[in-house]
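We now fix the convention by which a protein and its fold are recorded. The integers have meaning only within a learned vocabulary of local backbone shapes. A record is reproduced here so that you can trace the correspondence yourselves:
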Amino acid sequence: MTKQQNHVVRELFDKVILPVYAPAQFIPVKGSGSRVWDQNGEEYIDFAGGIAVNALGHCHPHLVKALQEQSEKLWHVSNVFTNEPALKLAQRLVDNTFADRVFFANSGAEANEAALKLARHYAIENFNPYKTKIISFTHSFHGRTFFTVSVGGQAKYSDGFGPKPADIVHVPFNNLDAVKAVIDDHTCAVILEPVQGEGGLTSATPEFLVGVRQLCKQFNALLIFDEVQCGMGRTGSLFTYQQYGVIPDILTSAKALGGGFPISAMLTTEAIASVMYPGVHGTTYGGNPLACAVGCEAFDIINSSEVLNGIQIKRKLFIELLEKINQQFAIFSEYRGKGLLLGAQLTEPYQGRASEFLNMATEYKVMLLNAGSSVLRFTPSLVITEEEIIQGMERFAKAVAKIVINK
């Protein structure tokens, strides 16, 4: 009892948490919709959405109800048994995508780990033990496990941990010739984000995705779409691949899938899934009844015309208000991403200063993100109101003014 503290302060983080994060100086304690309150009762407008996780805002009543009801029924049974919420959510995913089979895990990294293992196993079982090459792209991000962080195209995250998994090649994004130069009969998979999240919110061109799909077919390689961040309504369709008309062999989902409750999924076809068998892969918590019950509710709300049709309208409003700020301060050179996965590229005088804008924004009670050091990222709730967007952007404008005036 002597170690317990009635009042938790931000300084405690620096004493007891592994120093791999640098969180803001305030501590959020309550959220409702797109508003958050800290320990002092100060209100913030949330344009970060838990890094595209809180797709329905904080404490959505339907999600709260689903969690409360399931919490009184069944919490956990492991993969030794199945459960109703997991089967219901899997059926929703199968019914609304290209997929026939679903594997549940807990995070985007785990879903991508499963996808990469499946791709290699499929190639080895169907072709030969040397068909293991994975092609990925610079500035990509696929998770923090050692395998996924090595597949990701940002060395700053993967260096410093010893020898990396072999047979992984990185080439420039949206460069089909670069893919042609490295793909061959030893390639088992090409993995990409239709919209790169952490890498600066670069969208794949239609020509690039079509070309990669054709190359994968030519060389019997699987095409993996990482839609951990850009999926589940974020860009205006249930999954972003549906806007391109290019169907992957494997798709990964997480973040918004649980509306804030940890859950992820890997989706694939019957033919590819058929190489797996009991014991070849697994997870203790994947398909947890609590997570899947919340996931079912989140899925039904997100996959509605009311929510999906409103995303481009909200994006347009964000850009109009950002451009109003830009006309006064000239800090943005372009707007990137799709839907409410929105990036604002900083102009030359402000290159490398994205974190400065984030920190100043919190002083004016608005929460946002960066995507690299020179892109501001907005991933708010998909159901954020027009009033909340306007009010949050008014606060952000004051933060921008403070930086520009004091430069």
Notes: DSSP finds 15 helices and 15 strands in the chain. The CA atoms of residues 231 and 239 lie 5 Å apart. The chain has two domains: 11-59+305-405, 74-302. Residues 1-5 have pLDDT under 50 and may be disordered.
